[in-house]
Design brief:
single chain, two-stranded parallel sheet, 48% helix, Rossmann fold, flat
Amino acid sequence: MDGIRLAIAGVGNCAGSLVQGIEFYRTHDPSETAGVLHPEIGGYRIEDIQVVCAFDVDARKVGRTLDEAVFELVNLEALSCGTPVVASHVGGFPDLIADGVNGSLVPPGDPEALASRLEAILDDPVLARRLGDEGRRTILRDFTWTRVAEKLETHYQRLLARRAAASAAEPSAAPRPSNEPSR
């Protein structure tokens, strides 16, 4: 029996929870399915689910791998709460987090660097507070609905200007003959 091929439309918190749950149950003993009402349905188990594609319209997520995209909003939410953020230097995180200013970036796949950075923040409440406060300022400066609308409007204006320039550069089409009698 083939597995279940899953496509996700909208890579938000629910999609993140789903993907993390699939991965959790895939890597644990199949008898340990606490929290799952029906570990098998129609002969399929959780480990039979394969996420084959995911779609989103959020520019921070477009073009990212699923494991990068699902965490884009999590970091925004943490920053907005004044929580110090430690993230891998992948995807859109470097666009959001200035290392040592409003959060911390660590090399991807380096658990020692991650542990060291987390320990440094936990051991230094002044650093934790400074990173958290600056993270919140980043959100209030760059990610309010007003600011997002301004950025979107600017983006649309650039697209319209580009389209107008492309149309102006095209040779004008010759008038088409008309079947109507001239007046």
